[in-house]
């Protein structure tokens, strides 16, 4: 097909030979299948901030690392420079996370390049070499559900040991490749150590897995890997080899002061995200 405008710079640079077809148009990005030499790759074109969803803005506003204070101030004020800086930080967050996780041995698409707001990466493929389906579009036996759940819990641990919480892990952002589940879609990934919402996001990620696979293997609904993993992480004893039980004893009657403070934080952040969205729209 004729390359869409946003891919033309990559064609000009020789990073892409031909554009095969459009794969998806999601909330945040358009995804294409492209050819480069004898390789078939996936090109993800980020949409502009104004087209992105409210939900991501919430977690995004928190503690995102920026290079300098001028940039940080501009981002806070929502000037044009600030919005551009924010945009660049958002896009590079996914690229950074992919490199970091690939290096840590997490099964993510192998990143190839990032150029003019386009991420070139491995095309995750099924047994026929076609783009792999999402978990949501796949059917499993209870045994397969248990096996994929166990694999993905190990991946969550591996990510956390590499300092990353995905933040939007669900059956929509996991592909089923020939060799098993592959985690995608990481622009909202956060630094586990530097983000006040890391715990909440990790618990939500693990809860999504539990709920999804629990539909096929109901005994998974009785597990609580999220709290177990976070408690080990906080004590500094979590490693990729740590044996997990899936059980966690919540302290009876303990006042969850941290939880209360997080609720307050969340309300504040939602307000910040609302303002961010108003700026982006106006
Ligand atoms: N590396 C890849 N290999 C194969 N398919 C991919 C790859 N990356 C993305 N896709 C396909 O494109 C879809 C959208 O990608 P992604 O989730 O990264 O973007 P998004 O804008 O967040 O989309 P959505 O809003 O649907 O979540 C995925 O659900 C998947 O079907
Ligand atoms: Mg997605």
From TrEMBL:
<dbReference type="InterPro" id="IPR011009">
    <property type="entry name" value="Kinase-like_dom_sf"/>
</dbReference>
<keyword id="KW-0418">Kinase</keyword>
<keyword id="KW-0067">ATP-binding</keyword>
<dbReference type="GO" id="GO:0005524">
    <property type="term" value="F:ATP binding"/>
</dbReference>
<comment type="similarity">
    <text>Belongs to the protein kinase superfamily. RIO-type Ser/Thr kinase family.</text>
</comment>
<dbReference type="InterPro" id="IPR018935">
    <property type="entry name" value="RIO_kinase_CS"/>
</dbReference>
<dbReference type="GO" id="GO:0046872">
    <property type="term" value="F:metal ion binding"/>
</dbReference>
<keyword id="KW-0808">Transferase</keyword>
<dbReference type="GO" id="GO:0004674">
    <property type="term" value="F:protein serine/threonine kinase activity"/>
</dbReference>
<dbReference type="InterPro" id="IPR000687">
    <property type="entry name" value="RIO_kinase"/>
</dbReference>
<dbReference type="InterPro" id="IPR051272">
    <property type="entry name" value="RIO-type_Ser/Thr_kinase"/>
</dbReference>
<dbReference type="InterPro" id="IPR048148">
    <property type="entry name" value="Prot_kin_PA4780"/>
</dbReference>
<dbReference type="InterPro" id="IPR018934">
    <property type="entry name" value="RIO_dom"/>
</dbReference>
<keyword id="KW-0479">Metal-binding</keyword>
<protein>
    <recommendedName>
        <fullName>non-specific serine/threonine protein kinase</fullName>
        <ecNumber>2.7.11.1</ecNumber>
    </recommendedName>
</protein>
<keyword id="KW-0547">Nucleotide-binding</keyword>
<keyword id="KW-0460">Magnesium</keyword>
<dbReference type="Pfam" id="PF01163">
    <property type="entry name" value="RIO1"/>
</dbReference>
<keyword id="KW-0723">Serine/threonine-protein kinase</keyword>
<feature type="domain" description="RIO kinase">
    <location>
        <begin position="5"/>
        <end position="234"/>
    </location>
</feature>
């Amino acid at each position: 097909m004729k390359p869409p405008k946003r891919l033309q710079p990559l064609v000009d640079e020789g990073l892409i030979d031909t554009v095969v077809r459009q794969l998806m148009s999601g909330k945040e990005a358009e995804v294409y299948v492209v050819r480069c030499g004898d390789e078939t790759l996936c090109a993800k074109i980020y949409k502009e901030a104004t087209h992105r969803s409210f939900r991501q803005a919430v977690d995004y506003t928190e503690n995102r690392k920026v290079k300098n204070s001028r940039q940080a101030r501009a981002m806070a004020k929502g000037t044009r420079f600030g919005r551009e800086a924010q945009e660049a930080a958002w896009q590079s967050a996914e690229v950074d996370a992919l490199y970091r996780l690939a290096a840590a041995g997490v099964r993510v698409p192998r990143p190839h390049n990032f150029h003019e707001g386009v991420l070139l990466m491995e095309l995750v493929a099924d047994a026929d070499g076609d783009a792999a389906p999402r978990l949501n579009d796949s059917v499993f036996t209870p045994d397969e559900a248990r096996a994929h759940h166990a694999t993905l819990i190990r991946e969550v641990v591996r990510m956390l040991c590499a300092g990353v919480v995905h933040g939007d892990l669900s059956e929509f952002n996991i592909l089923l490749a020939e060799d098993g589940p592959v985690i995608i879609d990481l622009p909202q990934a956060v630094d586990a150590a530097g983000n006040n919402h890391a715990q909440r996001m990790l618990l939500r990620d693990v809860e999504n897995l539990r709920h999804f696979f629990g539909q096929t293997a109901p005994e998974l609904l009785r597990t609580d890997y999220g709290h177990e993993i976070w408690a080990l992480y906080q004590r500094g004893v979590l490693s990729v080899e740590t044996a997990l039980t899936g059980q966690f004893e919540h302290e009876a009657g303990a006042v969850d002061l941290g939880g209360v403070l997080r609720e307050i934080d969340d309300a504040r952040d939602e307000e910040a995200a609302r303002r961010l969205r108003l700026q982006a729209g106006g």
